[in-house]
Design goal:
about 80% helix; mainly alpha
C-alpha cells in the first residue's frame, strides 16, 4: 500500500473513532465487551504502527524508499 493509501486509511479510522465517542459515553460506558474490544484494537493498532515504522526504516537503510 502506498503512503497516500495509508494516510487515507488512518484518516478514515480517526473519523470513525470520533463518531464513536457519543455512543460510547451514552450507551456503552458500562459494557465490559466494549472495553475489551477497545483494548484489543489499541494493541492491534500499536503493533501495526510499529510494523509500518520498522518497514520504513528498513527501506531507508536499504538506500531509499520505493
Amino acid at each position: 500500500m502506498t503512503s497516500s493509501g495509508w494516510a487515507r486509511v488512518q484518516l478514515g479510522l480517526a473519523v470513525t473513532w470520533m463518531l464513536l465517542i457519543a455512543p460510547t459515553l451514552i450507551w456503552w460506558r458500562d459494557s465490559v465487551l466494549w472495553v475489551a474490544l477497545m483494548s484489543l484494537w489499541a494493541n492491534i493498532a500499536a503493533h501495526l504502527a510499529a510494523w509500518q515504522a520498522a518497514r520504513t526504516e528498513r527501506k531507508l537503510d536499504a538506500g531509499g524508499a520505493k
